[in-house]
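All the exercises in this workshop are built on plain-text protein records. A record pairs a protein's sequence with a compact description of its fold. The structure tokens are whole numbers drawn from a learned vocabulary of backbone shapes. Once this layout is familiar, the rest of the handout is easier to follow. An example says more than a description, so a record of this kind follows.
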Amino acid sequence: MGKVHEIFPLVVYQGNIDCHNEFKQYTDELKHYWFNGYENESPEYSGRIFVHANSKYEMFFDGLKKNIDEYYKELNVDHTKLSYFISKSWVGYHDKDAPPLRPHHHNEANISFVYYLKSSDKSDKFCVSQSTNINQNTGGLFESSEQRNTLLGYNKYNCNFYTITPHEGTVLLFPSNVYHHTLKSEESDERIVIAGDVRVTLKPEYSNYHQGCTHPTQWLEL
């Protein structure tokens, strides 16, 4: 048996929001921030992308920062040299009749997040996908058919998507350029999320590092 070298794995981090039980008091009012995906193709169209501007919700964003720190620890990155900026945040509301989210990624951000304010194990699952699997060295080798298949089953080397159960009180963190969508479940229990984007820069005192973007206070707007 040969050795498999696992190279370039994608990390999607799932962590707990410590203040979740306390933060749930805002569930009903947060529904008013819903961008109404039935009428608007994207949160930006609705203009409701600044949940983070409300100081009442500061406890959640404090919890989000702790999870971003942990995410970077898993990547073996010194997060103490980094600053995080929420550029957009919005509320998603999905009931059993809501259509699944189509595969998409987020523009102009570094990290995207999804916090499950209300959900259950029967809610639609979060799904990360890729259009091309680099291990598919022969065209169509990993495709499936109802009658004949060369693929004996899916594993982490040959799959093109991966699902994550939306556990209430947890937040998912992932690179913003990763394609993701939702997978409908039979029950499709109600799901309320806060989602958004994060820009990451170096702290001002680390401007002599080349591995990141300089802090906004050191920029010049033209």
Remarks:
- The chain has a mean pLDDT of 94.
- Strands lie at 13-16, 82-94, 111-118, 125-129, 161-164, 170-175, 179-183, 191-202.
